[in-house]
Amino acid sequence: MYDQDQISSHTIVATLLDFQKQLQSNDALKNTNIDLKLVMRTHGIISILMGFITFILPHSAYKSSEGNYNHMAHEYVRLYGCLTLTIGYFVYATQDIKDGRLMRSISETFAICYILQSLTMFRAQFSNPNGHSLFHWIIAVLFLFIGFSYGYIRLIKKMKAYELPSVNDD
Fold first, then answer.
1. pLDDT tens per residue across span 11-69
2. Rounded to whole angstroms, how far apart are CA atoms 39 and 157?
3. Which of 73, 154, 162, 168 has the fewest C-beta atoms under 10 angstroms from its C-beta?
4. Could you give the CA distance from residue 69 to residue 63 in angstroms, rounded to a whole number?
5. Does the pTM exceed 0.70?
C-alpha cells in the first residue's frame, strides 16, 4: 500500500497524537497556573499596544542609513499595525467565550500563527548579513512565547472546556 520511503498523513497524525498523550501524562506540565484566559488577556494587551505603536510611528522611523524615507515600508508596517491592533481587540473581547470548540480553534490558530511568525523572524535574523536590532530579537522571542503558550494550552494542559459540548451542539 505505501512505500517505506513514503510517509502518510495518517502516520504523522498518529505520531503527533502519541506525542500529545505522552506530554499530557506528565503532571508537572499540567499543574501550572497558566490558563487560556490569562494567555488571551496578555496576548490581547500586548497586541493592542504593539498595533497602536506601529500604527502611529513617525516617518523618521523609516529612513534608511542613507537618510531616504521608504514610503512602502511605512505603509506595510502601518497595515500590520492595524491588523495587530484588531487581532488584539478580538482576542481580548473573546476571552470569556464558553464554546470549547471555538476556543480550541483559536488556540490552535494562534499557536501556528505566532510560531511561524517567530521562525520567520529568526530566519531573517540569521540570513541578513547586516543583522537586526535587539528590538527585533525581543519581538521574535515574544512571538515564540505567545505561540508556545497557546500550544501549551491546546496540547498539554487538559482543558475541560474543550471537552464540553457547546450550546448549539447537535
1. 555 665 665 565 555 554 555 667 888 889 999 999 999 999 988 887 777 676 677 77
2. 13
3. 168
4. 4
5. no
Q: Is 31 helix (H, G, I), strand (E, B) or coil?
A: coil
Rg, the chain, Cα only:
20
Q: Which residue carries 488577556 as its cell?
A: 41
Cα–Cα distances in angstroms (integers) from residue 140 to residues 37, 52, 113, 114, 134, in the given order: 23, 18, 12, 9, 10
The pLDDT value given to residue 165: 53
- For residue 109, pLDDT over 60 is answered with yes
Q: Dig out the grid coordinates for 40 from the structure.
A: 488571551
Give dist(CA 152, CA 149) in Å, integer: 5
